Amino acid sequence: MKALILVGGFGTRLRPLTLSVPKPLVDFANKPMILHQIEALKDVGVTEVFLAINYQPEVMLNFLKDFEDKLGIKITCSQETEPLGTAGPLALARDNLVDGSGEPFFVLNSDVISEYPFSELIKFHKAHGGEATIMVNEPSKYGVVVMKEETGKVDRFVEKPKIFVGNKINAGIYLLNPSVMDRIELRPTSIEKEVFPRIAADEKLYAMVLPGFWMDIGQPRDYITGLRLYLDSLRKKSPYKLAVGPHIAGNVLVHESAVIGEGCLIGPDVAIGPGCVVESGVRLSRCTVMHGVRIKKHACISSSIIGWHSTVGRWSRVENMTILGEDVHVGDEVYSNGGVVLPHKEIKSSILKPEIVM
Known about the structure:
alpha/beta; ten-stranded parallel sheet; seven-stranded mixed sheet; 29 strands; 21% helix; elongated
């Protein structure tokens, strides 16, 4: 089987992290976001993954070359010369995705984190005999799918409705038959607004309710929420991967190469990456600490993302969705209340209200 991951553009909502790497390579729970998806696809027999991308394809490919060999899966970029929306990239990759075998292929939004129940999706898709299956989830701020609960057949597809029409939202995970390609032209076009409504009108679109958690982690607040949901899921499925000890409170993921000092309190909902040094007396909660970070004595970090190779000084307090880009150095006894700090900066005075530090 094959898969197309919609990578898209600049990742502006996750700046300043995406000033250093393309968004799918930003670490989530100690590995690049996109790797969670590629590993799950490999587990159900996908042998080839295409990345629909219009920004820095060479950076992506160079990075993923290592994983191609480790996972034994072929990864190729399908580069857009102009943004093609969510359906245009399928037309661009048509020759790669449609090989005459008749096998359906996966399409994923690269921002989506979940338990990726792909084997259940394949079974459901083959059983209903329709043309396309979309995974759906409970509502929030996204497009709504109106479906027959008994069969999963989609009645209609409403993008971001103003009034209540149903309580299932599109989760950004699809399994499509090759015949769907005949409905897509090579131009900027939306799969949600133009393609799915037509398949639904022909009664060939089905929806499967996503078991487990789901989050679009393309912006900081949702990224932190997604980490909590991911660690909750890990607790149920692979609790041995989580840290234990008197200094751990709740679900915490610590890379084996990270060093943690005495008298710390870490958790809940924390990920500490490779090569990190957490000195004594540090307090961490609801945060991600990316690889190579040093957190000095008695610092306190909550609801924040600390980018690669940064340092947080002694007795500093970092909170309220502070995001430090790569190689940011926060001085001793500095307070950050929602500061968004671009890479390679030194912060010597407190950030008292949420602002961007250039």
